[in-house]
Amino acid sequence: MSLKLLIIGAGGIGGYYAARLAGAGHDVVLTARGDHLKAIQGRGLKVDYEGRIFDCRLPAYDHASLIQACQPDDFDLVIVALKSTATEPVMTELGDWLRSGTVPVLSLQNGVDNEPLIAVVVGESRVLGGLAVRIGGHITGPGEVFAEGVAQIVMGAWPEQAPADARIPLLDRLQTAFNLAGIPTTVTDNIRYELWRKLVINNGVNPLSALTGLDTRSLTHHPEFGRIVYGMMAETVAASRAEGVNLSQQDLDEMFELISTFNAIKTSMLVDKEKGRPLELDSIAGAVQRRCRQLGIEAPYTTTVSALLVHSGTGDRLA
Ligand SMILES: NC(=O)C1=CN([C@@H]2O[C@H](COP(=O)(O)OP(=O)(O)OC[C@H]3O[C@@H](n4cnc5c(N)ncnc54)[C@H](OP(=O)(O)O)[C@@H]3O)[C@@H](O)[C@H]2O)C=CC1
Ligand SMILES: CC(C)(CO)C(=O)C(=O)O
Protein backbone atom coordinates (compact mmCIF):
# COMPACT_ATOMS: atom_id res chain seq x y z
CA MET A 1 0.00 0.00 0.00
CA SER A 2 1.33 3.40 -0.89
CA LEU A 3 2.63 5.73 1.80
CA LYS A 4 1.73 9.38 2.35
CA LEU A 5 4.97 11.17 3.10
CA LEU A 6 5.82 14.76 3.97
CA ILE A 7 9.45 15.69 3.34
CA ILE A 8 10.50 18.86 5.14
CA GLY A 9 13.43 20.36 3.24
CA ALA A 10 13.56 19.32 -0.42
CA GLY A 11 17.32 19.79 -0.84
CA GLY A 12 20.04 17.31 -1.84
CA ILE A 13 18.84 14.60 0.54
CA GLY A 14 15.10 15.38 0.73
CA GLY A 15 14.83 15.96 -3.02
CA TYR A 16 16.64 12.74 -3.95
CA TYR A 17 14.65 10.46 -1.64
CA ALA A 18 11.41 12.25 -2.63
CA ALA A 19 12.06 11.45 -6.30
CA ARG A 20 12.72 7.75 -5.57
CA LEU A 21 9.65 7.41 -3.35
CA ALA A 22 7.34 9.32 -5.72
CA GLY A 23 8.72 7.24 -8.62
CA ALA A 24 7.60 4.11 -6.75
CA GLY A 25 4.04 5.43 -6.46
CA HIS A 26 4.04 6.94 -2.97
CA ASP A 27 2.26 10.25 -2.31
CA VAL A 28 5.03 12.69 -1.50
CA VAL A 29 4.55 16.31 -0.39
CA LEU A 30 7.56 18.63 -0.10
CA THR A 31 8.48 21.78 1.71
CA ALA A 32 11.03 24.25 0.41
CA ARG A 33 11.33 28.02 0.08
CA GLY A 34 12.45 30.82 -2.24
CA ASP A 35 13.29 30.24 -5.91
CA HIS A 36 13.72 26.49 -5.34
CA LEU A 37 10.11 26.27 -4.10
CA LYS A 38 8.82 28.42 -6.97
CA ALA A 39 10.61 26.21 -9.51
CA ILE A 40 9.27 22.98 -7.95
CA GLN A 41 5.75 24.44 -7.96
CA GLY A 42 6.10 25.70 -11.54
CA ARG A 43 8.14 23.09 -13.41
CA GLY A 44 8.46 20.23 -10.92
CA LEU A 45 11.53 18.74 -9.25
CA LYS A 46 14.29 17.37 -11.49
CA VAL A 47 16.74 14.92 -9.91
CA ASP A 48 19.90 13.83 -11.72
CA TYR A 49 21.08 10.58 -10.13
CA GLU A 50 23.83 8.36 -11.50
CA GLY A 51 22.94 9.06 -15.14
CA ARG A 52 19.15 8.83 -14.61
CA ILE A 53 16.81 11.81 -14.60
CA PHE A 54 13.73 11.78 -12.34
CA ASP A 55 11.19 14.47 -13.31
CA CYS A 56 8.55 14.74 -10.58
CA ARG A 57 5.45 16.88 -10.24
CA LEU A 58 4.85 16.99 -6.51
CA PRO A 59 2.83 19.29 -4.24
CA ALA A 60 5.24 21.70 -2.56
CA TYR A 61 4.65 24.34 0.10
CA ASP A 62 6.44 26.78 2.33
CA HIS A 63 5.72 26.13 5.99
CA ALA A 64 3.04 28.81 6.36
CA SER A 65 1.02 27.37 3.48
CA LEU A 66 1.64 23.76 4.58
CA ILE A 67 -0.09 24.55 7.87
CA GLN A 68 -3.08 25.95 5.96
CA ALA A 69 -3.28 23.16 3.36
CA CYS A 70 -2.58 19.98 5.32
CA GLN A 71 -3.09 18.26 8.68
CA PRO A 72 -0.17 16.31 10.21
CA ASP A 73 -2.22 13.12 10.24
CA ASP A 74 -2.78 13.36 6.47
CA PHE A 75 0.64 11.67 6.44
CA ASP A 76 2.01 8.29 7.52
CA LEU A 77 5.41 9.86 8.16
CA VAL A 78 7.11 13.25 8.28
CA ILE A 79 10.75 13.16 7.13
CA VAL A 80 13.03 15.99 8.27
CA ALA A 81 15.78 16.58 5.69
CA LEU A 82 16.83 20.06 6.76
CA LYS A 83 20.33 21.16 7.65
CA SER A 84 20.82 20.79 11.43
CA THR A 85 21.09 24.57 11.66
CA ALA A 86 17.38 24.74 10.71
CA THR A 87 16.04 21.99 12.98
CA GLU A 88 15.28 24.14 16.01
CA PRO A 89 13.73 27.12 14.14
CA VAL A 90 11.61 24.85 11.95
CA MET A 91 10.50 22.74 14.92
CA THR A 92 9.41 25.99 16.60
CA GLU A 93 7.64 27.14 13.43
CA LEU A 94 5.81 23.81 12.95
CA GLY A 95 5.53 22.89 16.65
CA ASP A 96 1.81 23.62 17.23
CA TRP A 97 0.92 22.02 13.90
CA LEU A 98 2.91 18.83 14.64
CA ARG A 99 1.48 18.64 18.17
CA SER A 100 -2.04 18.77 16.73
CA GLY A 101 -1.48 15.27 15.26
CA THR A 102 0.19 11.99 16.04
CA VAL A 103 2.28 11.33 12.91
CA PRO A 104 5.81 9.95 13.56
CA VAL A 105 8.78 12.10 12.54
CA LEU A 106 11.97 10.65 10.99
CA SER A 107 15.16 12.73 10.90
CA LEU A 108 17.50 12.02 7.98
CA GLN A 109 20.07 14.55 9.12
CA ASN A 110 23.72 14.37 10.05
CA GLY A 111 24.65 14.86 13.71
CA VAL A 112 23.40 13.41 16.98
CA ASP A 113 21.45 16.40 18.32
CA ASN A 114 18.49 16.62 15.89
CA GLU A 115 16.34 13.84 17.34
CA PRO A 116 16.40 15.41 20.83
CA LEU A 117 15.15 18.72 19.34
CA ILE A 118 12.35 16.92 17.48
CA ALA A 119 11.47 14.95 20.63
CA VAL A 120 10.99 18.20 22.58
CA VAL A 121 8.17 19.04 20.15
CA VAL A 122 6.49 15.69 19.44
CA GLY A 123 7.64 13.48 22.32
CA GLU A 124 10.11 10.57 22.12
CA SER A 125 7.46 8.01 21.22
CA ARG A 126 6.93 9.73 17.84
CA VAL A 127 10.62 10.07 16.93
CA LEU A 128 12.50 7.86 14.49
CA GLY A 129 16.23 8.42 14.15
CA GLY A 130 17.79 8.03 10.76
CA LEU A 131 20.65 8.76 8.48
CA ALA A 132 21.45 9.01 4.82
CA VAL A 133 24.50 6.87 4.12
CA ARG A 134 26.83 6.70 1.10
CA ILE A 135 25.12 9.59 -0.67
CA GLY A 136 26.35 12.92 -1.90
CA GLY A 137 23.65 15.32 -3.05
CA HIS A 138 22.95 19.00 -3.47
CA ILE A 139 20.73 21.57 -5.12
CA THR A 140 22.33 22.57 -8.44
CA GLY A 141 19.78 25.23 -9.39
CA PRO A 142 16.15 26.15 -8.64
CA GLY A 143 14.10 22.94 -8.81
CA GLU A 144 17.18 20.83 -9.56
CA VAL A 145 19.04 18.28 -7.44
CA PHE A 146 22.12 16.19 -8.22
CA ALA A 147 22.78 13.01 -6.22
CA GLU A 148 25.28 10.15 -6.34
CA GLY A 149 26.23 7.03 -4.39
CA VAL A 150 24.22 3.96 -3.39
CA ALA A 151 22.17 6.26 -1.16
CA GLN A 152 21.15 4.01 1.69
CA ILE A 153 18.99 4.81 4.71
CA VAL A 154 19.44 3.43 8.21
CA MET A 155 16.66 4.11 10.69
CA GLY A 156 15.34 3.01 14.03
CA ALA A 157 13.25 3.88 17.07
CA TRP A 158 14.97 6.75 18.93
CA PRO A 159 16.58 6.92 21.45
CA GLU A 160 16.28 3.15 21.70
CA GLN A 161 13.95 0.40 20.72
CA ALA A 162 11.89 -1.02 23.58
CA PRO A 163 10.75 -4.66 23.53
CA ALA A 164 7.49 -4.70 21.54
CA ASP A 165 8.08 -1.03 20.62
CA ALA A 166 4.93 0.46 19.01
CA ARG A 167 7.13 1.96 16.23
CA ILE A 168 8.32 -1.44 14.93
CA PRO A 169 5.36 -2.12 12.56
CA LEU A 170 5.83 1.29 10.90
CA LEU A 171 9.60 0.76 10.65
CA ASP A 172 9.04 -2.62 9.00
CA ARG A 173 6.56 -1.08 6.55
CA LEU A 174 8.97 1.75 5.71
CA GLN A 175 11.86 -0.67 5.25
CA THR A 176 9.88 -2.74 2.74
CA ALA A 177 8.51 0.27 0.86
CA PHE A 178 11.87 2.11 0.70
CA ASN A 179 13.72 -0.98 -0.53
CA LEU A 180 11.09 -1.55 -3.23
CA ALA A 181 11.56 2.11 -4.22
CA GLY A 182 15.28 1.47 -4.86
CA ILE A 183 16.52 2.90 -1.56
CA PRO A 184 18.63 0.27 0.25
CA THR A 185 17.21 0.60 3.75
CA THR A 186 17.89 -1.18 7.02
CA VAL A 187 16.22 -0.89 10.40
CA THR A 188 18.48 -0.99 13.44
CA ASP A 189 17.58 -1.55 17.08
CA ASN A 190 20.45 0.77 18.07
CA ILE A 191 20.04 3.98 16.08
CA ARG A 192 22.21 6.08 18.43
CA TYR A 193 25.16 3.81 17.65
CA GLU A 194 24.58 4.30 13.90
CA LEU A 195 24.19 8.08 14.29
CA TRP A 196 27.48 8.24 16.15
CA ARG A 197 29.23 6.09 13.52
CA LYS A 198 28.04 8.54 10.86
CA LEU A 199 29.23 11.45 12.99
CA VAL A 200 32.69 9.85 12.92
CA ILE A 201 32.67 10.28 9.13
CA ASN A 202 31.16 13.75 9.17
CA ASN A 203 33.54 15.16 11.75
CA GLY A 204 36.39 13.48 9.88
CA VAL A 205 35.73 15.04 6.49
CA ASN A 206 33.09 17.80 6.51
CA PRO A 207 34.92 20.64 8.35
CA LEU A 208 38.27 19.85 6.71
CA SER A 209 36.69 19.75 3.25
CA ALA A 210 35.02 23.13 3.87
CA LEU A 211 38.38 24.50 5.03
CA THR A 212 40.48 23.12 2.15
CA GLY A 213 37.95 22.90 -0.70
CA LEU A 214 38.93 19.25 -1.21
CA ASP A 215 36.58 16.31 -1.80
CA THR A 216 36.43 13.25 0.47
CA ARG A 217 38.77 11.10 -1.64
CA SER A 218 41.43 13.81 -2.01
CA LEU A 219 41.34 14.36 1.76
CA THR A 220 41.48 10.72 2.85
CA HIS A 221 44.23 9.83 0.33
CA HIS A 222 46.37 12.89 1.11
CA PRO A 223 49.46 12.06 3.22
CA GLU A 224 48.89 14.84 5.79
CA PHE A 225 45.14 15.58 5.51
CA GLY A 226 44.44 11.83 5.70
CA ARG A 227 46.07 11.76 9.14
CA ILE A 228 44.03 14.79 10.25
CA VAL A 229 40.83 13.09 9.05
CA TYR A 230 41.75 9.98 11.04
CA GLY A 231 42.57 12.14 14.09
CA MET A 232 39.20 13.93 13.94
CA MET A 233 37.46 10.58 13.58
CA ALA A 234 39.36 9.22 16.60
CA GLU A 235 38.24 12.25 18.64
CA THR A 236 34.62 11.50 17.66
CA VAL A 237 35.03 7.90 18.79
CA ALA A 238 36.37 9.18 22.14
CA ALA A 239 33.48 11.69 22.43
CA SER A 240 30.88 8.92 22.00
CA ARG A 241 31.74 7.68 25.51
CA ALA A 242 30.07 10.78 26.97
CA GLU A 243 26.74 9.26 25.86
CA GLY A 244 27.58 5.67 26.73
CA VAL A 245 27.73 4.79 23.04
CA ASN A 246 31.35 3.60 23.35
CA LEU A 247 32.47 3.33 19.75
CA SER A 248 35.54 1.12 19.27
CA GLN A 249 38.80 1.07 17.29
CA GLN A 250 36.97 -1.21 14.85
CA ASP A 251 34.26 1.42 14.30
CA LEU A 252 36.98 4.01 13.68
CA ASP A 253 38.78 1.85 11.11
CA GLU A 254 35.56 0.80 9.39
CA MET A 255 34.40 4.42 9.02
CA PHE A 256 37.81 5.54 7.70
CA GLU A 257 37.74 2.68 5.20
CA LEU A 258 34.15 3.51 4.16
CA ILE A 259 34.85 7.16 3.40
CA SER A 260 38.26 6.44 1.80
CA THR A 261 36.73 4.00 -0.68
CA PHE A 262 33.48 5.98 -1.37
CA ASN A 263 33.05 8.31 -4.38
CA ALA A 264 35.03 11.56 -4.36
CA ILE A 265 32.24 13.58 -2.70
CA LYS A 266 32.01 17.33 -2.28
CA THR A 267 30.71 17.32 1.29
CA SER A 268 27.50 19.10 2.22
CA MET A 269 29.54 21.50 4.38
CA LEU A 270 31.78 22.43 1.45
CA VAL A 271 28.69 23.05 -0.70
CA ASP A 272 27.29 25.31 2.06
CA LYS A 273 30.58 27.19 2.38
CA GLU A 274 30.73 27.81 -1.37
CA LYS A 275 27.12 29.07 -1.34
CA GLY A 276 27.77 31.32 1.68
CA ARG A 277 25.18 29.44 3.77
CA PRO A 278 25.34 28.59 7.50
CA LEU A 279 27.57 25.60 8.24
CA GLU A 280 26.62 22.56 10.33
CA LEU A 281 29.81 23.14 12.31
CA ASP A 282 28.18 23.31 15.73
CA SER A 283 26.20 20.09 15.20
CA ILE A 284 29.26 18.21 13.91
CA ALA A 285 32.56 19.52 15.34
CA GLY A 286 30.80 21.38 18.19
CA ALA A 287 28.99 18.20 19.21
CA VAL A 288 32.33 16.38 19.49
CA GLN A 289 34.05 19.23 21.34
CA ARG A 290 31.22 19.52 23.88
CA ARG A 291 31.30 15.78 24.68
CA CYS A 292 35.12 15.79 24.95
CA ARG A 293 34.96 18.77 27.36
CA GLN A 294 32.37 16.85 29.40
CA LEU A 295 34.81 13.89 29.59
CA GLY A 296 37.75 16.19 30.46
CA ILE A 297 39.69 15.20 27.33
CA GLU A 298 41.25 17.29 24.57
CA ALA A 299 40.08 17.24 20.94
CA PRO A 300 43.00 19.07 19.33
CA TYR A 301 42.36 18.17 15.69
CA THR A 302 38.66 19.07 15.86
CA THR A 303 39.34 22.26 17.80
CA THR A 304 42.07 23.41 15.40
CA VAL A 305 40.17 22.68 12.19
CA SER A 306 37.00 24.35 13.59
CA ALA A 307 38.93 27.43 14.68
CA LEU A 308 40.63 27.69 11.26
CA LEU A 309 37.27 27.34 9.52
CA VAL A 310 35.72 30.07 11.64
CA HIS A 311 38.81 32.24 11.07
CA SER A 312 38.66 31.62 7.32
CA GLY A 313 35.76 34.05 7.15
CA THR A 314 32.68 31.93 7.81
CA GLY A 315 32.51 32.69 11.51
CA ASP A 316 29.77 35.25 11.15
CA ARG A 317 27.54 32.65 9.46
CA LEU A 318 27.94 29.85 11.97
CA ALA A 319 24.71 28.85 13.63
N1 LIG B 1 24.12 16.66 1.01
C1 LIG B 1 24.69 15.48 1.27
O1 LIG B 1 25.42 14.92 0.46
C2 LIG B 1 24.42 14.82 2.57
C3 LIG B 1 23.75 15.49 3.55
N2 LIG B 1 23.43 14.84 4.72
C4 LIG B 1 22.71 15.55 5.76
O2 LIG B 1 21.34 15.65 5.37
C5 LIG B 1 20.75 16.86 5.90
C6 LIG B 1 20.18 17.66 4.75
O3 LIG B 1 21.29 18.10 3.95
P1 LIG B 1 21.12 18.64 2.46
O4 LIG B 1 20.10 17.87 1.73
O5 LIG B 1 22.48 18.73 1.91
O6 LIG B 1 20.55 20.10 2.76
P2 LIG B 1 20.07 21.20 1.70
O7 LIG B 1 20.56 22.49 2.22
O8 LIG B 1 20.44 20.78 0.31
O9 LIG B 1 18.50 21.10 1.80
C7 LIG B 1 17.75 21.62 2.85
C8 LIG B 1 16.54 22.29 2.25
O10 LIG B 1 15.69 22.74 3.31
C9 LIG B 1 15.30 24.07 2.99
N3 LIG B 1 14.88 24.84 4.17
C10 LIG B 1 15.64 25.26 5.21
N4 LIG B 1 14.88 25.97 6.07
C11 LIG B 1 13.63 26.00 5.54
C12 LIG B 1 12.41 26.61 5.94
N5 LIG B 1 12.32 27.31 7.05
N6 LIG B 1 11.33 26.46 5.15
C13 LIG B 1 11.41 25.75 4.00
N7 LIG B 1 12.54 25.17 3.56
C14 LIG B 1 13.64 25.29 4.33
C15 LIG B 1 16.54 24.66 2.37
O11 LIG B 1 16.25 25.89 1.75
P3 LIG B 1 17.43 27.01 1.61
O12 LIG B 1 18.35 26.44 0.56
O13 LIG B 1 16.68 28.22 1.20
O14 LIG B 1 18.07 27.12 2.97
C16 LIG B 1 16.92 23.53 1.42
O15 LIG B 1 16.15 23.55 0.26
C17 LIG B 1 21.90 17.57 6.63
O16 LIG B 1 21.87 17.28 7.99
C18 LIG B 1 23.16 16.99 5.98
O17 LIG B 1 24.30 17.04 6.83
C19 LIG B 1 23.72 13.52 4.90
C20 LIG B 1 24.39 12.82 3.94
C21 LIG B 1 24.87 13.42 2.73
C1 LIG C 1 30.50 12.98 3.85
C2 LIG C 1 29.14 12.64 3.32
C3 LIG C 1 29.06 12.83 1.85
C4 LIG C 1 28.91 11.15 3.55
O1 LIG C 1 27.65 10.72 3.09
C5 LIG C 1 28.10 13.46 4.07
O2 LIG C 1 27.40 12.96 4.92
C6 LIG C 1 28.00 14.93 3.83
O3 LIG C 1 28.47 15.45 2.81
O4 LIG C 1 27.41 15.59 4.71
TrEMBL record:
Which of the seven top EC classes does this enzyme belong to?
Answer: oxidoreductase
| Enzyme Commission code(s) on record | 1.1.1.169
Question: Which residue intervals define the domain Ketopantoate reductase N-terminal in the entry?
Answer: 6-159
Q: Which reaction does it catalyse?
A: (R)-pantoate + NADP(+) = 2-dehydropantoate + NADPH + H(+)
- The record places domain Ketopantoate reductase C-terminal at 190-309
Q: Which UniProt keywords apply?
A: NADP, Oxidoreductase, Pantothenate biosynthesis
Coiled-coil segments: none
Q: Which GO biological process categories is it annotated with?
A: pantothenate biosynthetic process
What cellular component terms from Gene Ontology apply here? cytoplasm
Name the SUPFAM superfamilies for this protein. Answer: 6-phosphogluconate dehydrogenase C-terminal domain-like, NAD(P)-binding Rossmann-fold domains
Q: In which pathway does it act?
A: Cofactor biosynthesis; (R)-pantothenate biosynthesis; (R)-pantoate from 3-methyl-2-oxobutanoate: step 2/2
Q: Which domain of life is it from?
A: Bacteria
Q: Which GO terms describe its molecular function?
A: 2-dehydropantoate 2-reductase activity
- Give the protein's function: Catalyzes the NADPH-dependent reduction of ketopantoate into pantoic acid.
Q: Which family does it belong to?
A: Belongs to the ketopantoate reductase family.
Name listed for the protein in its UniProt record = 2-dehydropantoate 2-reductase
* Native species: Marinobacter profundi
